[in-house]
Automatic annotation (TrEMBL), chains A, B:
It comes from the Archaea. Residues 148-370 form the Peptidase M24 domain. Pfam families: Creatinase_N, Peptidase_M24. This is Xaa-Pro aminopeptidase. Belongs to the peptidase M24B family. Keywords: Aminopeptidase, Hydrolase, Metal-binding, Protease. GO terms for molecular function: aminopeptidase activity; metal ion binding. PROSITE patterns: PROLINE_PEPTIDASE. The lineage of its organism: Archaea, Methanobacteriati, Methanobacteriota, Stenosarchaea group, Halobacteria. Residues 6-86 form the Creatinase N-terminal domain.
Length: 386, 386
């Protein structure tokens, strides 16, 4: 039993429940973490008495026995379930829990209503895990997990280099970037990034390459021709296709002179990034780190969500988030966020946005250590490509 | 109001509920279908009185107003919610439902327990949508949706061609396939497929390229060197990154002589595919189509899940599934599956498996028409590459 699952046993003891139940497919990071299994359809995982039990369909049985982290793997046929409907499926779940020997379970808050209600109707005591114990466990990485994130980060850097070299090789024609005789578009840069990711064992379909006013919306993926002198935000957050761990990095570039306003924004953003990284240490809160970034911006006269909760320009998001089996997970670096501890892996990603100016964001990935933090990102910060 | 949402209104009327509530991020296909919005964090969508209402964070507000399918978009700040915890969030949800004017809702069976329990505590009547109305709506595609699937299918075919040409160009060295002086591995063929998909506007990180005994497990993605004479199953099911619709196709190849057993399996599989496609028409059930495929195999002496529910060799899965905003969705082509109707898009993918022999699967995609079906797949079926 690993360190992490010992902590899960304590959560169950504190809650006075017999087992921890997840009903989800592998895309749910808690399911992947607890089961170690990439079943494409929803399956049950129960952790009880120091052991992990899986219930899968016959199609998944051999693979689950071979590749999952579970101590016990059972299959639907053991419960004579094959073509049954909802009620028969819930009967099977209740019988499986009986075999595991649990009468009461905790389920994650976002677990399925039908399973919770159906098990309650069958006499199982189902409570919501309000502490979100598995997500909290996932927030503290082992050295092996940090290494998996590092590997994904190396792929991310290779992809960013491919993007930067496209920008550096571009010519300017009437204000538009041109490469190999064609307008250089967000789509073309994104393709170069994602192909490079694939060649490094990672995948992403959500990469952001956004210039001009598009860069002012932090969630706009970007489309169409890129222009000289505008800021171009490139945010790459791929998943390693083998380990399933994510990395995350953002750089902002401008080809040709971006003007004084964007230059000031970029300098302030690097300053905010540095202040936030300096604030990261065990015992500091996510709020401390966020405030460190906000203060740099506010001192320079930029609005932040802290100074004006209604603002739509300035620093309109939090300073960062955990990264692991999910690209967004605890800890958060925002107001009211709790204490950091060694093994947390978080992004630090301050930025400024205004549709009339553009967007600037710079993002590094750090791991909290015993006495501060270590930056996992190894990529230069160059704004203007002349 | 579109045809589909009229049907959702009927579901609500039948259930005697005011609204249909989804709490999910865009990766939930029902959320994507109803909201038309790709919010990366969970958000609320309520359909009531012929109108769709969204509740999103401030960060998503502008993009939701611009790009979602909703009639009304509200943001957290309207409810003074910014840094609140679970209870404050549930209070906001209840206030939002009050603004929409609903006191009772249907939620999908896999909606989050916490939202259901929390709204019940706040006096909202929450019932599970046991009919799975939105998923049922999604199963019947409009012509525009079929066109999006066709576009993804064209990308899939380009990717399969890239894979097939790698196999065709390979040399054999001591039984192993060799390309450009390196062993040709599952990983290398998968990379060629996924790079081609990206260049055609699609993405996938789960492509199957599995040879030998690996091909005998329908969910094994495959790894390591590919060998001459073994069957190599290639299953490509990418998502269009813009429209979010999937396609799905499988071909099986052998480089050099696969021997009589695999040749017989391949012929039987084409026969089963043809029999199943012939059975597809409005009014036929998914079971009819599945039985058509099973009968071909059973008549030739191969076990199927129909003839032996415990079998681990032979035809060990169903004949197919719907494809749309999810890669697996209704209708199912399996025992107890209901009637097909025009606009259903389904895979037809019979196969045979035995670790001692290998695996064979061939998969086309068809759309049910008024009087039969149209095959959306335009790719040859060649088993042996000499």
């Amino acid at each position: 039993m690993t360190r992490e699952l010992t902590a899960l046993a304590e959560t169950l003891a504190d809650a006075g429940r017999d087992g921890y139940l997840i009903d989800a497919d592998w895309e749910d990071p808690n399911q992947l973490y607890l089961s170690g299994f990439t079943g494409p359809d929803p399956f049950l995982t129960v952790y009880a008495d120091g052991r992990t039990h899986l219930l899968v369909s016959g199609l998944e049985y051999a693979r689950a026995k071979r590749s999952s982290r579970a101590d016990v793997v059972r299959r639907h046929a053991e419960y004579d379930f094959q073509y049954g409907g909802r009620e028969e499926r819930l009967d099977m779940y209740a019988a499986f829990l009986d075999d595991v020997g649990v009468e009461s379970v905790l389920m994650p808050a976002r677990g399925p209503i039908e399973t919770a209600d159906g098990l309650r109707e069958r006499g199982i005591d189902v409570a919501i895990d309000r502490e979100d114990a598995l997500t909290a466990l996932r927030a503290v990485k082992t050295d092996a997990e940090v290494d998996r994130i590092r590997a994904a980060q190396r792929a991310t850097e290779a992809a960013m280099a491919a993007a930067e070299s496209l920008l550096a090789d571009a010519d300017v024609d009437d204000g538009t970037l041109v490469h190999d005789g064609e307008p250089l578009t967000s789509e073309r840069v994104r393709e170069a990034i994602e192909v490079t990711l694939l060649r490094h064992g990672c995948a992403s379909a959500e990469t952001i390459v956004a210039g001009g006013a598009q860069a002012a919306d932090p969630h706009d993926r970007g489309s169409g021709p890129l222009a000289a002198g505008e800021s171009i935000v490139i945010d790459v957050f791929p998943r390693d296709t083998e380990t399933k761990y994510f990395a995350d990095m953002t750089r902002t570039f401008a080809v040709g002179d971006p003007g004084d306003t964007l230059r000031e924004w970029y300098d302030r953003t690097l300053e905010a990034l540095e202040a936030a990284v300096d604030a990261v240490e065990p015992g500091a809160t996510g709020e401390d780190v966020h405030v460190a970034a906000c203060e740099v911006y506010e001192d320079a006269g930029h609005p932040t969500l802290r100074s004006d909760p209604e603002t739509e320009t300035g620093f309109v998001h939090s300073t960062g988030h955990g990264v692991g089996l999910a690209v967004h997970e605890p800890p958060r670096l925002s107001m009211d966020a709790g204490e950091l501890e060694p093994g947390n892996v978080v992004t630090i990603e301050p930025g400024l946005y205004d549709p009339d100016v553009g967007g600037v964001r710079v993002e590094d990935l750090v791991v909290v250590t015993e006495d501060g933090c270590e930056t996992l990102t190894d990529y230069p910060k160059r704004f203007v490509i002349d």
